[in-house]
Amino acid sequence: MRGPARLRWAAAAAVLPVLAGCTVAGNAAGGGGDAVRVVIGYQSKTINTVTAGTLLRTLGLFEKRLAALGKAEDRTYTVVWQDYDTGAPITAQMLAGKIDIGSMGDYPLLINGSRAQAQGGDALTEMVATTGYNLRGSLNGVVVANGSKARTLRDLKGESVSASVGSAGHGTLVQALQRYGLDPAKDVKVENQQPTVGTSALQSGGVAGLAQFVAWPGLLVNRGQARLLYDGGDLNVPTFHGTVVRKTYAKQSPAVLREFLKAQIEATAYLHKEPMKAAESVASTTGLPAETVYLYNGAGGVATFDTTIKKPLRDAHAQDVPFLKSIGVLQQPLDLSTFVNESYLREAYGAGYDRDAASTANPAAIKGEDRVCRRQVDDAATAGEVWVSGEAATRPVADPVCLLRNVRAVQAEGKTVRAVYAPDAVTGTRWFADKEIWVEDPSAKAEQRFKPFATQEGADKYIAAHSGAKVVPYADAVRRS
Questions:
Q1: Mean of the pLDDT values across residues 153-160?
Q2: Residue 189 in contact with residue 165, Cβ under 8 Å?
Q3: Where is the signal peptide (predicted)?
Q4: Crossing angle (nearest 10°) for helices 254-273 and 275-286
Q5: Using the 8-state DSSP alphabet, how is residue 35 labeled?
Q6: For 340, phi and psi rounded to 5 degrees?
């Protein structure tokens, strides 16, 4: 992080120990000497885009490829990285011709394409790759203060909720409210705020809830500053982030775009091979806790990282267009058939593209042997992890009860648990196990007696359907597992 950005981060952290934004001014035209500038717009702390942003930048993979390309072409390339909190300013800079390649979430991508097509000419843009996705939508969520009495989203009726209008987090809030029979325009007051501002408002009591995208829900819960009220995965609508390029730039500099996409593919492979190192790297660069980064980006994480543009994601985009129009966020028409262009990625990816594009299996699934339950970890629906301080890799666990037993074993060893991750018993959403609501079901088999839920609502529904089931403190569940 550069000097001015670090100062802004430090100033924000002095007020509240959470995320802060930083922006580096830049211009795609001109530059020092004869160097050809390539300007990349990214969101360092939107960790579902790290393979096209933070991690890619830290690894220097794009610069290495441009150095080789420049040597072959007898020219010098220089990369300018511009960091933003959300996708909106990246879009504005792209339309002005000041950013060449960017990354952002699914809703901002649609707004990007819509505004670009409305402006036409050199402003046209194309989505050319995916960074990461979650097929159920669990990258977004609504959190409330720990002391809030709200148990479901319906309990926020008549309250103010902070959201970045036009973001994926905002879209999740609107769709979820509608499913609860609430009118998003009348039954709640949406405060259009940047994530940092909304976080401060939640802490001060200025708003009753915060609806945001990755990594904000996980960050605040991990910090002990909020609890998850609504899991975006309940919508069962895919959410994702992707790479976008100015169409004119792609035509004028196809070799540069190809090298960027190849570098993104390499960064994705690195994240799969070294998930803990990648999480630590992103944490070091952004100031985010590594435990939060790993929740989303680690093995079996909430985000599945895959550059290919998959049909479920295309279909989700097609369904999102009328929705965004209905809430007034998408004001210009959008032709998705010309906006989404995977031809550049196909060339960079090579053989196997169609095979990998057709698969939705997580390339970084949790695997290994559960050392306590003495079982192979092979079921993504139940697998979890225990991160022990000082150990080079997490300990894979087969299921929630085995997870509790592994935590107890670590405690018996006199070691410290740094983080522990378990999937929601019903939705499968990966969450911090020590922040989940644990339910004991006496009627279940011993190996299934304790069940974790990411939200209070999920736990309440299970208890209502299972006589004798009750909430138990996490520590008690560990002790009695």
A1: 97
A2: no
A3: 1-20
A4: 110
A5: P
A6: -90, 120
Q: What is the DSSP-derived secondary structure letter of residue 310?
A: -
Q: What is the mean pLDDT of residues 403-417?
A: 97
CA atoms of 164 and 185, how far apart (whole Å) = 15
**Residue 437: how many other CB atoms lie within 10 Å:** 24
Q: What is the pTM of this model?
A: 0.90
CA atoms within 13 A on the CB side of 33: 6
Taken in order of first residue, the domains within the chain and their CATH numbers are 3-133+241-358 (3.40.190.10), 140-235 (3.40.190.10), 368-480 (no CATH)
CA nearest to 26, candidates 44, 38, 8: 38
- Report the distance separating Cα 473 and Cα 437, nearest Å: 8
pLDDT of residue 32: 42
Residue type, 257: L
Q: Which residues of 181-213 are buried (b: 16+ CB within 10 A; e: fewer)?
A: ebebeeebebbebbbbbbbbbbbeeebbbbbbb
Alpha-carbon dihedral of residues 93, 96, 99, 100, nearest 10 degrees? 140
Burial 113-122, CB ≥16 within 10 A → b, else e: bbbbbeeeee
The H or E element spanning position 437 is strand 437-440
Containing H/E element for 273? helix 254-273
Q: Identify the CA nearest to 133 among candidates 315, 330, 261.
A: 315
Q: For residue 439, which of 423, 412, 458, 418 has the smallest C-alpha distance?
A: 458
What separation in angstroms does the CA of 208 have from each of 160, 196, 244? 6, 15, 34
Closest CA to 458 of 420, 426, 432: 426
Q: What angle do CA 119, 120, 121 make, to 5 degrees?
A: 130
Tens digit of each residue's pLDDT (9 = 90 or more) over 303-345: 999 999 999 999 999 999 998 898 888 888 999 999 999 999 9
Q: What dihedral angle (degrees, nearest 10) is formed by the CA atoms of 210, 216, 222, 228?
A: 40
φ and ψ of 255, to 5 deg: -65, -40
Q: Which of 122, 228, 211, 207 is nearest to 166 (CA)?
A: 211
DSSP secondary structure code for residue 340 in this structure: B
Instruction: Find how far residue 401's CA is from the centre of its chain.
Output: 27
Which H or E run contains 188?
A: none
